[in-house]
Amino acid sequence: MFAIVPPYLLSRLAATEAPHLAMAADAARATLAITRVHHRPVLDRARLDLSVDDDALVVRGEPAPDRVISDARHLERLPGIRVRGEDDPATGDRAVDEAFEGLGASFELFWDAFSRRAIHGDGGTLAATVHYGERYDNAFWNGERMVFGDGDGEVFQGFTASISVVGHELGHGVIEAGGGLEYRGQSGALNESVADVFGALTEQHLLRQSAAEASWLIGAGIFTPAVQGTALRSMSAPGTAYDDDVLGRDPQPAHLRDYVDTAEDNGGVHINSGIPNKAFHLAATALGGFAWERAGRIWYLTVTQGGLSPTADFAAFAAATTATAAREYGEESEEAEAVRTAWTAVGVTACETPSRQPRPA
Asked: Are the beta carbons of 46 and 123 closer than 8 angstroms?
């Protein structure tokens, strides 16, 4: 559940008979066979900064992350061995240190842009485990922590190398803490899409990139040079992230008319996330500047303020984001118009339902 690499891509890799990818095929089959257990989140208390001013005890919230990185040592057991905490120096282990820095970048986005302290908004530990499994071809959120595999080395390399992947997985935790979106069908595609939004914004915030400057790629850097592709997904151009002899062509649609009706992958949660991804990209680029300041704030407020149904479909989410923009900026504002126009451009309105198309081969 809540994994960055979709099963349809792993299935293509698992089925290959290419001799030079034998190890990758074995790793993909093993990755697909692993059962991930999702844990109900438990709210952590905020870390507090206590001081004395004259005779008064002053309590201040501390806007700083509390990161704990563990090492699974290539076993499929969580949490693993604790190897780095907030006050510890860099370890020299690339995955450990990349996860630590990635969680810090995610924390900074949520604090700076949305005044949110960690996943639950009240502080608490940001936990991650690296070196999960043997050549594990994925990364996921399990309700308690982010978990990262090292990849097979032939098709996938370490998943901590991509800031957007780290931000995506932490984003799943924020979505869940905000009330959640059921991980099936259109609500599941929205769950994946909003996590992609947070992943993209984490990278953009770290690099101080405007919406126009950003790559809008999710998972850039996790493919080896052998793969004909740039990333797992493209938010600006869904369906173009990769076109590879083994992995096939990126199957994501960018418009509701191409919605994929499938029973696989919890009803196509990864494939169909391309539609709301494109809507966010259109809204963010229409507004310009830093995407986290207005478009990102609208999406963030929509999923965290408690008014969104866990089973919301695309039309309901379009209506909710438009309502958030109108409430925050005004009914006739540039922001509300940008959101309305973006959803219309991808074929989503309050009165339309998705056309049904067969799953691409």
From this structure: yes
